[in-house]
Specification:
Layout lengths: L1 H6 L6 E4 L2 E8 L2 E10 L6 E8 L8 H14 L6 E7 L3 H9 L3 E12 L2 E11 L2
Parallel strand pairs: 4-5
Antiparallel strand pairs: 1-2, 2-3, 3-4, 5-7, 6-7
This protein binds coenzyme A.
Length: 130
Amino acid sequence: MKEEKGFLSQNRQKRKSKTEFNYSIVYKENLVGAIGLRIDRFRPYVGELGYFVDEKYWGKGIASEAVKLAEKIGFGKLGLKQIEIMMIKKNKASENVVARCGYKKEGIVRKKILLNTQYHDGYLYAKVDS
Ligand SMILES: CC(C)(COP(=O)(O)OP(=O)(O)OC[C@H]1O[C@@H](n2cnc3c(N)ncnc32)[C@H](O)[C@@H]1OP(=O)(O)O)[C@@H](O)C(=O)NCCC(=O)NCCS
């Protein structure tokens, strides 16, 4: 529990609105990234996770751990039934993260991901609360 508190530093939590929950990712007392859970306005039992980790810290399992912790909040405190994660097709690292965390590929999304002013195709992964 202590580790969880340190990892998703509560102090840095910014609650933009009731449908958006953003957390800092802290590793060995360094701020190394962020993870956010956004609840679908029309389907409030569905949340979408997005995250990033500073390149210097890639490959240490940090994003995987952050997804697991954010998911606990989503399925637990927030009572979500499904959590979705989307990534562009070439983002193998993110696919590895979600696969490791038990998310299943639901399909391809077309021009749904806006990145640097460009709309990209991608994959939709999801996990259902068991
Ligand atoms: C995707 C991202 C969050 C992964 O963070 P991370 O802390 O390195 O992730 P983890 O260490 O938990 O796991 C990464 C996995 O991808 C692998 N990996 C790391 N960098 C990689 C790369 N450049 N290419 C392919 N695989 C890579 C790791 O070995 C690990 O695989 P494994 O499960 O087989 O061991 C990070 O690369 C990032 O912030 N990227 C930019 C933003 C982004 O893409 N966010 C996700 C949008 S959905």
